[in-house]
Structure formats: C-alpha cells, structure tokens
Design brief:
The chain has 204 residues and is of the alpha+beta class. The protein has helices at residues 50-71, 77-92, 135-145, 152-169; strands at residues 3-8, 12-18, 21-23, 26-29, 35-39, 42-48, 99-107, 111-117, 123-126, 128-132, 177-183, 186-193. The chain is built from 4 helices and 12 strands, in the order ββββββααββββααββ.
C-alpha cells in the first residue's frame, strides 16, 4: 500500500512518501526512507518492489555522482530524469525493474521541476503527481487545492491534507510519512508525520 506524491511550489519542489516496508501481510518496519537524495539539489521518491526500488535508486544515485566526478559539473534535473528513463527502458527489454519514480530537483537557471517516471519508462514533466494506492486520494486533493506559486507552508499543508485523507480512507493505510524538500539551498529532509514508532525488541 505504498504512497509517493509530490508537487512544485514557488522556488521549491516537495516529495512525500510512506515509510512502511511491507511483504505480503507483514510489516517489517515503519521507518523505511523511500526518498533518496541523489545529489545536493535532487530528490528521488520511489515506490515498487523493495529489492528493485533499493537497487535501482542506488544505481542511479551512484551514476549521477560518477558523472559529476568525471565532468566536474552536476547533471541538470532534466538530464537526470532522461538518464533514469533511459536505464528503465533498457532494463525493460532485459530484466525489468518494477519501480515508479518522482524525481524533483532545483536548477539555478530553470528553478524547481518535478518528473514522473513509471515502471514502463514513461517520462513526463509535471507540477503535481502521485504513485501507489494513495494516489487515488492525493490526486483528487491536489486537483482541488493545488495552485501554481504555492508557498512552502501552503504546500506542506496540502501534503498534510493528502496524508490525512490516506489515513482516513485507505483500508490498509501506512502510519508514517516522510517529507523532503529541494530549493535553492539544496535537498533536505523537512519533516516526518508519524503515528507509530518502531518498537525495540523486548527483553526476555
């Protein structure tokens, strides 16, 4: 029951994701960070099969770093999105990854941007988007409340509305969410929205 969603505001982009690691009917942990910081000004929120998600996002992160080390300049957000899309398309014909991605970044000349990349390597530049079962509720909330030029406070308030809608209407709703933001000051963790914390192993 994964949920990854994000939007572009005035000078920033924000991504939120659930933090549940689930297999079949079991919840293994509830603090799994599904939003990777690719470099100083890029975020990658991913949903899908756990192994594919971790392996593919780490592969993209290391290649983005490698490009910067070799060339002395970082990839733009559009270039990183197209590289990611190309790797998914190549894998699609060999050993496909079941992973859906929202890639957010900030470029000095362009500003913030958000890209939608699904498991069959569809790429779109968007203003707002979502993946997972939570998208049924997030997209309708964003259609109602989103507008261009939102402030950080307005965007986080909309993210919180989406989280509340997921928690109240999704039958197996994830309890915890992480929110990350990217702007001219870089990519960073903004907040957690937790209803339960991972308990330590009880002493016997």
């Amino acid at each position: 029951m994964e949920c990854v969603f994000g939007l572009v505001g005035d000078g920033f982009a924000v991504i939120a994701a659930d933090t549940s690691a689930v297999n079949s009917i079991l919840v293994h942990k509830s603090n799994e960070d599904k939003i990777m910081i690719l470099d100083s000004h890029k975020l990658m929120g991913a949903s899908g099969e756990s192994g594919d998600r971790v392996q593919f996002t780490e592969y993209i992160q290391k290649n983005v770093h490698l490009y910067q080390f070799r060339n002395g300049i970082p990839l733009t957000t559009a270039a990183a999105a197209n590289f990611t899309r190309g790797e998914l398309a190549t894998a699609l014909r060999k050993n496909p990854y079941f992973v859906n991605i929202l890639l957010a970044g900030y470029d000095k000349e362009i500003g913030p941007s958000l890209y939608y990349i699904d498991y069959i390597s569809t790429l779109h530049k968007i203003q707002k988007g979502a993946f997972g079962y939570g998208s049924y509720f997030c997209l309708s909330m964003m259609d109602r409340h989103y507008h261009s030029g939102m402030s950080v406070e307005e965007a986080v308030d909309l993210i919180d509305k989406c989280i509340m809608e997921i928690r109240s209407r999704l039958v197996v709703a994830p309890p915890n969410f992480v929110i990350k933001i990217v702007d001219k000051d870089g990519a960073r963790e903004y907040a957690w929205r937790e209803t339960i914390k991972d308990a330590g192993v009880a002493a016997t």
